[in-house]
Amino acid sequence: MRHDYYSYTKEQLLADPKIKLFCLKDNASVFKQMAEEMAEEIRTHNAEGKKTVFICPVGPVGQYPYFVDMVNEQNISLKNVWFINMDEYLDDEKHWIPAEHPLSFRGFMNRTVYDRIRPELLMPPEQRVFPDPLDTGRIPELIEELGGVDIAFGGIGINGHVAFNEADPSLTNEEFLAQKTRVLEITPQTRTANAIGDFNGALEDMPRYCVSIGIYEIAHAGKIRLGCFRNWHRAVVRRAAYGEPSSAFPVSLLQGHPDLTLTFTDYVAALSDGI
């Protein structure tokens, strides 16, 4: 069966989606917009004496250099900010891969974000949080203690996953949305896509397990901001915006969120010859 929405032009795509869509010129525009929203939310909360709580991805990552520059140049204090990262790869014993591993999300955040922010502006280490495979209940507890998540940032995987909440059509939509932080086996589709995008195609060395924030935590954030920019995101964006809500394509279950936006590039909005 061929779904009509996969052949939507840019104009059709933007005409009547089930979620709010923004189409920008290129990758840099998408990443800069995300960084600007991060910085603005923190500035606003700082001025009001409030904490800021983000769920943060390592994918997309292009927003972080812009964000670091904004923080350093505009003297934005992160002392009352919590970054709760979405996920991390695990080894075969289901422990975090070493931070020195080229695929480690912890290592990436240290190198690309935390080590580049002026020390007097940086939040303390206990506010830089990753889900722990040995204490998966900690993330939901922490979010509750902090009073909720202000914004969940992220991308969309090839099978519609947000974080590593992989498609599972054996679950009802309600059952899927109830899933919280947990250890997961990564699907072959996601391992392949990530190997191509992040590891030069070295599929045999890709981790098989991960620990991931649940779709529950993401769905209950005050705002959700998603960005798409890869060639296969052409299909992902169209299904996210026009497909039926289904645990077979998890991002579609977020269509009812009151403040969800999906931003993508002109490249993604365009149709390739293969669609």
UniProtKB/TrEMBL annotation:
Q: Does the keyword Transferase apply?
A: no
PROSITE patterns found in the cross-reference section = GLC_GALNAC_ISOMERASE (PS01161)
This protein's source sits in the domain of life called Bacteria
Q: Which UniProt keywords apply?
A: Isomerase
Entry keyword annotation includes Isomerase: yes
Q: Which GO terms describe its molecular function?
A: isomerase activity
The name under which this protein is listed is Glucosamine-6-phosphate isomerase
Task: Please give the organism.
Answer: Enterocloster alcoholdehydrogenati
